[in-house]
Specification:
single chain; 264 residues; alpha+beta; Jelly Rolls; three-stranded antiparallel β-sheet; 5 helices; 18% helix
Length: 264
Amino acid sequence: MSDVSVTTDAGDAAGHSVAQRDGPGLPQRGPGGDLAGHIGRRLAAYRGQRGMRVAELAREVGVTPSLISQIERGLSRPSVSTLFAIAQALDVPVDAFFREPPQASTPDQGVPPGHAAPDDGTRPGAGGTPQPGQAPPAAEGRYVVRHGSRAVIDIEGGVRWERLTRTTLDHLDFFELVYEPGAESHPRQYTHPGTELVLVMNGCLEITIGFERYRLEPGDSIDFPSSMPHRYVNPSTETARAVTVILYDCPGHAGQAPPDARTR
């Protein structure tokens, strides 16, 4: 595995590897509680599972122990760059800290955590019989994520990520980005594994890659190596929304990434 560097809140670069999924003994991701506190509880659980002290994790991430402690206690939220660094230090994907949507109370459906619940007949026009153009409930549970059923995370500085896939995928991340007016990913640039693709839907985003700055408006798109130092800013007075895909190394013939795809 090769190291990757992330510029964190302290402005230092740290090298870490990334793995997948939740481990045993961790609390389920749920929608309850305050936004910052949810991230903190997840962080404390992962750190405790790995037997890491606060000071050790802070050293790996490149921030102060007090910041890690504040995040765990729900007194602060990580920035985008710090979230990437924490995820890499703890060997989890970044969406390990997302809040999952409430699950429908249909235990017989057997929908695992992180999957969209099947249509239970509560939507207009539903009642057990699919309407024209409407997918059957079982198929919807396998493939569809409704707008209100996304896993989300609210990050420092007015940034929100919404996951557009039902679960974490090994070879890519597929998110909607929401940047409030004036929001930024971080004052400094950061890096992480993969190739980044962005399509702006509403508002505008300024994306700096190395020494070059690009202003993207609705319909504009960009792609670049995530290993290049970069940052996002919403310079306008309007909320910006964009769809992003982060692709990780994946053999063209396989359809599934190797175990260390996110660390290359």
